[in-house]
């Protein structure tokens, strides 16, 4: 079935990680986030992908080209991010007069449920949560969706909208919606109109993740690392110890005395060791370097990031071309055991995680023996002085 994947957003809640990378291209378990969404769509029955792009769109085009796994990819550009209904309206010009699927390009869906969704249109993917009030909540009558309410104080169900839809062909005539309370043209208003005119089925997802904020990128990496299949295309020293599912991509080098406990993905051109320790859902992107006596746990080191000597990095996101000085240590746990908070668009937000380290933009430089407190955000091109203890964002 023809499938629209929404990937035009600027990803402002992900900053500084999205300073130079569009959110759909953020690295997760060996490939960009939206590649996982597309891979899942293809496994579920997508016959053609229409990718809506906008912010830093060239990076998306360059990565995918004209197809993914034999399925053609076409691009439509949404010039201004006016909302999800507007994004689908832009894509609708490329749609054939047939039912179509819409997926959020920054969401991950479990494949069996996505397959069911493709086979049961008109449909919307639902996910059961204990705190529905902060989401779009589905009104249901048995399996039938009768409506959707945004962030209700008194939610009509525990089923939230996952941003996965199968729409009837005539929905293309319903995409001109009014501006919502939050000032956007929203697909949920389209969904409401479709629910009024058709029988729309709720298809429950067992697993679903909306990747909007930095710690959700870590969660995405944890989830998708579960299905990594070991591969050793790169060079692995005979004195290195590798266990669990570990991908050593072509051109990667694992030096003497390194221990890697998978799942882990070591990208092409990356160098690990000597004597480094990598563990727990870690993705070392291409051309990144992890040197002597460095431990990296449950983290993503973006392209070209370097942690040269005597450092600890836990539960962290380290931006492109960042350089950590020798002895840089990341704190990832509060002594009172409370969940770590992070600042998102100026507001302190609980990550819900007991373990969370730091979020670093591009080209950050830390001085030797820098200590970074849990939940600290370092903006792109910022630096710390030798011996500094960083307790606040910069
Ligand atoms: P959001 O996560 O709501 O928006 P965003 O990606 O711009 O992120 P942020 O709020 O942090 O700035 O978007 C949901 C999905 O819809 C996501 O895959 C991006 C896509 N989208 C578009 O394609 N066009 C749009 O105009 C908007 C608002 C979102």
TrEMBL record:
Looking up InterPro entries in the UniProt record yields: Bifunctiontional_GlmU_arc-type, GlmU-like, GMPPB_C, NTP_transferase_dom, Nucleotide-diphossugar_trans, Trimer_LpxA-like_sf
Q: What class of enzyme is it?
A: transferase
Q: Which residues form the Mannose-1-phosphate guanyltransferase C-terminal domain?
A: 260-380
Q: Which Gene3D superfamilies match?
A: Hexapeptide repeat proteins (2.160.10.10), Spore Coat Polysaccharide Biosynthesis Protein SpsA, Chain A (3.90.550.10)
GO molecular function terms listed in the Swiss-Prot or TrEMBL record: glucosamine-1-phosphate N-acetyltransferase activity; UDP-N-acetylglucosamine diphosphorylase activity
Which CDD domains does UniProt cross-reference here?
Answer: LbH_G1P_TT_C_like (cd05636), NTP_transferase (cd04181)
Q: Name the domain of life this protein comes from.
A: Archaea
What metabolic or biological pathway is this protein involved in? Nucleotide-sugar biosynthesis; UDP-N-acetyl-alpha-D-glucosamine biosynthesis; UDP-N-acetyl-alpha-D-glucosamine from N-acetyl-alpha-D-glucosamine 1-phosphate: step 1/1; Nucleotide-sugar biosynthesis; UDP-N-acetyl-alpha-D-glucosamine biosynthesis; N-acetyl-alpha-D-glucosamine 1-phosphate from alpha-D-glucosamine 6-phosphate (route II): step 2/2
- Enzyme Commission number: 2.3.1.157, 2.7.7.23
Q: Which residues form the Nucleotidyl transferase domain?
A: 3-223
Q: Which UniProt keywords apply?
A: Acyltransferase, Multifunctional enzyme, Nucleotidyltransferase, Transferase
The reactions it catalyses are: N-acetyl-alpha-D-glucosamine 1-phosphate + UTP + H(+) = UDP-N-acetyl-alpha-D-glucosamine + diphosphate; alpha-D-glucosamine 1-phosphate + acetyl-CoA = N-acetyl-alpha-D-glucosamine 1-phosphate + CoA + H(+)
Output the PANTHER family linked to this UniProt entry.
N-ACETYLMURAMATE ALPHA-1-PHOSPHATE URIDYLYLTRANSFERASE, NUCLEOTIDYL TRANSFERASE
Q: Which family, according to the similarity comment? A: In the N-terminal section; belongs to the N-acetylglucosamine-1-phosphate uridyltransferase family.
Give the protein name, as stated in the record: Bifunctional protein GlmU
